[in-house]
Write a structure and sequence with these properties.
This protein is α+β, with helices and mostly antiparallel strands and about 120 residues long. It has one domain. The chain is built from three helices and five strands, in the order ααβββαββ. It has a three-stranded antiparallel sheet with strand order 2-5-4, with no helix packed on it. It has a two-stranded antiparallel ribbon with strand order 1-3. The protein is elongated and about 80 Å long.
């Protein structure tokens, strides 16, 4: 090693191939408008345990929002990838379900009037 010659090595976290490609595209401004316009939208999952429910029981419907984007979409800035000011609306209840109160508050149980039988038909 020559004296006076120093190499600077930047510490980069271990990234997989997809993250490296997204980071490269972000740094070179490739398709950034598409990414900013939510090309990879969040996914909404509804969870409800009906294993012990009977007709007329109240059940709790939980919502999970999965954001598939992370900081690698935005130059390793997790803050830019974060979902903010979310609002969810359940516009249609599954067949056989009814809400105890219109515009129910969060975490309010839903009433099940009929449960599907094992063959998938309502009984």
């Amino acid at each position: 090693m020559r004296s006076g010659c120093r190499r600077r090595v930047s510490r980069v976290p271990a990234l997989n191939e997809s993250e490296v490609l997204r980071l490269f595209c972000y740094e070179n401004q490739v398709n950034t408008r598409i990414v900013e316009n939510n090309i990879v939208p969040p996914r909404v999952h509804f969870l409800c345990d009906l294993s012990g429910a009977k007709a007329g029981d109240n059940v709790v419907l939980k919502t999970v929002v999965h954001n598939p984007r992370d900081g690698s979409w935005f130059g390793m800035d997790d803050e830019k990838a974060m979902l903010k000011n979310l609002a969810l609306s359940l516009v249609e209840l599954p067949r056989g379900w009814s809400s105890p109160v219109r515009n129910a508050r969060p975490f309010r149980p839903w009433r099940v009037s009929r449960l599907p039988s094992r063959n998938g038909r309502h009984g």
